[in-house]
Structures are given as C-alpha cells and as structure tokens.
C-alpha cells in the first residue's frame, strides 16, 4: 500500500524513541532523503516554535493522540524567525572570551596537581592570587615556590607579616586536606 506522506502532516502524535524518551507534537515534515521526522513540539502561546528532529530508525513507537487534522496538509504559515540582537551576541561573546582568558590565568602551566590544589585553595580565599611561572604569588606580597609547602613560602617585602601568616594557614590547611584524602578520610 502506498502512503502519501502529505496526509500525515499535522497529526498530533506521541513518539517514543529507542531510549524510551517520549516526545509529543504535531508532525511538521518527513524527510525521506535522511529518514527524519520533524515534530512541531507543543508550545505555550507567545513562545518561539520548538522543533524536534527524530531519526526514523530511532523511533520505537508512534501513536496518534489527536483527531485527524481538518485539512489534508498542515497549515503552512511561514514561521517568522525571532529577531537576534547582534549587539547582545557580540557582548555575550566578548564576555565569554574574557571569562575564558581569566579562567586560563588560574591554571598553572607545568605544575603538579598538588601545586594546582594549593593555588585553587588560596584563590578561593584570596582572589588576588596568580601564577608567576611555576610560583604562586598572593596579594603581590607573598610567593610560594614548588613544591608549594609551608617551608616554601616567603614574603616579597619584609614587612608583610599579616598576609604571610594568612597564606601559611591556608597552605597548611590545603596540605592537611590532601593528606586526609590520600588516607581515605
């Protein structure tokens, strides 16, 4: 039996895929070239159209859940695209690039995992922490050299005892945490 696919357009269906995920919508199109079914997913008023494209070979079951559409084909009103603010996209892209650059600055290059953990612990408490080669610099006052233990902490200026004490406490806490995790505690 031959079936004209124009006759199924517009039917409200429930599609279950091979992973048992259920999607409901109206059949919007069928593409025989790549064997896909496009559903216009049911939406709330004043929201943009949502389409789901499903590969026919991934469909486990298809159930018609609504009445037969009034016309033989789906009403073909052109779908108007939602306007896109180029300025907003450019600003968002600029923000993401800046964020990626900032994220890159907090990842040490060629450092041990312990060094990165010490850095991360310091950075959470004191955001003015940065990498200088393989050394960690905190508040431009304290430097921690590999292997990033308390004995490797030194002030960059002789009179910065307050920040030195704080950094020593944070580094000591980071090492205690690492040791307890290694012991399974």
UniProtKB/TrEMBL annotation:
The record's InterPro entries line, in alphabetical order, gives: AD, Lsm12-like, LSM12_ABD, RNA-processing_Lsm12
Q: Which Pfam families match?
A: AD
Q: Where is the AD domain?
A: 82-179
Family matches, as SMART domains: AD
Identify the domain of life.
Eukaryota
| PANTHER family attached to this UniProt entry | LSM12 HOMOLOG
* The protein's name in its UniProt record: LAFE_0F05776g1_1
